[in-house]
């Protein structure tokens, strides 16, 4: 259960959705489980990119761009955030369920080409506004006062992580593929990656953030990214059981999730990534990217050499940014991390490596980015400090 196909192939399938950057009828006094009314919160047509519905006692968010693997764009962020805040205050809403349309993806990332690249060229402030709103949404999920259940079935990368990992419950299936591959296009694992990645066991988060390694199936649960694992064929039943709850407590919701989790037998005794955890912890305990690379070279095992090959393709600047980001984020709050990441992303999107990475992976698809600087030695501490510096009045505000 390792890498199947290349990272670039997966990203190209998304049609430009790289994993960095979601997608009223009055309620009677009847018990929640008996309500069949559906409250349509958005422009709910066949073309709506995100569906925001009241179903029973739940607010249900459906990322509705299956053709683009439910990649997150600017309008989806603008729609989701205010509705989420309304549901948080609504006494008739007891939980949130977020899911992706179709069978392939929860959310494969942000709509980089549509939401960011063109905006940077034409109106940089619009690109900044996308990230600002997205990070504010990530924080709203992290601080949400009601149970939040993300059904991370299928591809879940970048922005998809931001829409799920900060919530209380994350349900993976045998078809879940989780990754943070931003260093491949001159970015870094954002959307709060600096918060949740270093809090995974050992040095796993550092490994995932630097290499973009894809964690699959039950390993997504074992890694601590998901809180529960459910057979994909049972997801519809799980959602129906959650929606049928009458004024559910957090414990009621947790009990249902645990019941489905306990009954799952798929890949129960298999773990690919954890065969290598001791080595991952050793390799990625280093304080510099150069030392991590040396550790991989000295190990020389097939798994180590595979990771070395991947890292050597990444933007040297992004690798150094990401390592410092994760080390700093390990002792920060989510809001502090998102503020740091907003500073970083504003600097990155106007730099050479981001545009070159997008060109090589998503536009020309030649898979041969020409990074500047081209090697780690040329990325100085002064360069890094410029990415992390305080921007003054343009900082992120919650």
From TrEMBL:
The keyword Mitochondrion applies. Pathway: Amino-acid degradation; L-valine degradation. GO terms for molecular function: 3-hydroxyisobutyryl-CoA hydrolase activity. Keywords: Branched-chain amino acid catabolism, Hydrolase, Mitochondrion. Its EC number is 3.1.2.4. Residues 59-388 form the Enoyl-CoA hydratase/isomerase domain. It holds the Pfam family ECH_2. It comes from the Eukaryota. Its main location: mitochondrion. Gene3D superfamilies: 2-enoyl-CoA Hydratase, Chain A, domain 1 (3.90.226.10). One of its GO terms (cellular component) is mitochondrion. It catalyses: 3-hydroxy-2-methylpropanoyl-CoA + H2O = 3-hydroxy-2-methylpropanoate + CoA + H(+). It is an enzyme of class 3 (hydrolase). GO terms for biological process: L-valine catabolic process. It is found in: Mitochondrion. Transmembrane segments: none annotated. Hydrolyzes 3-hydroxyisobutyryl-CoA (HIBYL-CoA), a saline catabolite. Has high activity toward isobutyryl-CoA. Could be an isobutyryl-CoA dehydrogenase that functions in valine catabolism. Also hydrolyzes 3-hydroxypropanoyl-CoA. Belongs to the enoyl-CoA hydratase/isomerase family. This is 3-hydroxyisobutyryl-CoA hydrolase.
